[in-house]
Amino acid sequence: MASTDSGSSVSAPHRSGDLFHAGLAVALLLGVWSVGGLEVTTGKVSLIEAVNGSTVLLPCNYHSCIGIKNLFFKWTFRNNGSEQALCEGNIPAEKIEPTYSISHDRVTFVGSSTTSNISILLWNITFEDEGQYICFARNPKEKNRNHSAVLTLRVVDQMKEVDNTLTVLIVSVLGGVIGLVVIIMVIKALVVHFLLKDDEKNKECLVTSSGNDNTENGLSGAKADNKGTPKA
Ligand SMILES: *[C@@H]1O[C@H](CO)[C@@H](O)[C@H](O)[C@H]1NC(C)=O
Ligand SMILES: *[C@@H]1O[C@H](CO)[C@@H](O)[C@H](O)[C@H]1NC(C)=O
Ligand SMILES: *[C@@H]1O[C@H](CO)[C@@H](O)[C@H](O)[C@H]1NC(C)=O
Ligand SMILES: *[C@@H]1O[C@H](CO)[C@@H](O)[C@H](O)[C@H]1NC(C)=O
Ligand SMILES: *[C@@H]1O[C@H](CO)[C@@H](O)[C@H](O)[C@H]1NC(C)=O
């Protein structure tokens, strides 16, 4: 998956002097070699999230169709550009268990050559263990080409995270409900306000008009009628 193919472009031009043909050869060879050559993989995972204090498996497997001999492998931890060796070893031949050395007090090797497994365990992780873990392998049978796969470890504080998501959830749901209620109340208040205003206007209109009607129809109404007819 994440095997590097550097180095092939250096060796390929021997087969053809012409640069274009060399390029073609490289392209073809890359296809063939990636099938036949060594492959180092972390499986489907490239990011591991784990709770601080827990122990994580850093998986790595190798695969080679042309077989291995004195396969060299190495685990390194990369954080902020600095690299730290964790474990390195040698597998003399297929199915022969590796010899290895460990240079980190919380790392144990759990791989097995019967399953082409070169995984390690990192015990009791802390937040300082966050970073990239590189599984590197080199098979002398393949002109020492380098292969590596990278795993990223993220350390989380589970209790806090659960609390946070819960509170965030509760707050957002509550906030949403409250917001909705507020909006509904505001709309209701506005509607009521305008309806009342309209009612009041209508009432006022009715009152004034009826008042006018009354005055017109009343005693003063006769005066108004009297005043109105000369104008018209
Ligand atoms: C492989 O990696 C080693 C360091 O580990 C480096 O010295 C060497 O040049 C690399 N080889 C290729 C072909 O990239
Ligand atoms: C995780 O880290 C926090 C803060 O650093 C600490 O309080 C807590 O005890 C740790 N949890 C575990 C399981 O180590
Ligand atoms: C790595 O960098 C981050 C910030 O970029 C810093 O918080 C952290 O302490 C650094 N870790 C180490 C091991 O230098
Ligand atoms: C991990 O932590 C436990 C409990 O604190 C301790 O007993 C154990 O020795 C630790 N393991 C390593 C490899 O440091
Ligand atoms: C590699 O070995 C470890 C430890 O035995 C195991 O947990 C893991 O599942 C193995 N990985 C594969 C891909 O077989």
UniProtKB/TrEMBL annotation:
User: Per the record, which residues fall in region Disordered?
Assistant: 207-232
What InterPro entries has UniProt attached to this entry?
A: Ig-like_dom, Ig-like_dom_sf, Ig-like_fold, Ig_sub, Ig_V-set, Myelin_P0-rel
Sequence ranges of Polar residues compositional bias? 207-218
How is the protein disposed in the membrane?
Answer: Single-pass type I membrane protein
**One annotated GO molecular function:** sodium channel regulator activity
- The Ig-like domain covers which part of the protein? 43-152
Against PROSITE patterns, the record matches this protein to: IG_LIKE
Q: Where in the cell is it found?
A: Membrane
Q: Which GO terms describe its cellular component?
A: plasma membrane; voltage-gated sodium channel complex
Q: Which residues cross the membrane?
A: 20-38, 168-196
Listed under GO biological process in this entry are: cardiac conduction; cardiac muscle cell action potential involved in contraction; membrane depolarization during cardiac muscle cell action potential; regulation of ventricular cardiac muscle cell membrane repolarization
Pfam entry (one): V-set
- Primary residence: membrane
Would the keyword Zinc turn up in this protein's UniProt record? no
Going by the entry's taxonomy, the superkingdom of the source organism is recorded as Eukaryota
Q: Which UniProt keywords apply?
A: Disulfide bond, Glycoprotein, Immunoglobulin domain, Membrane, Signal, Transmembrane, Transmembrane helix
> What name does UniProt use for this protein?
Sodium channel, voltage-gated, type IV, beta a
Q: Which organism is it from?
A: Oryzias latipes (Japanese rice fish)
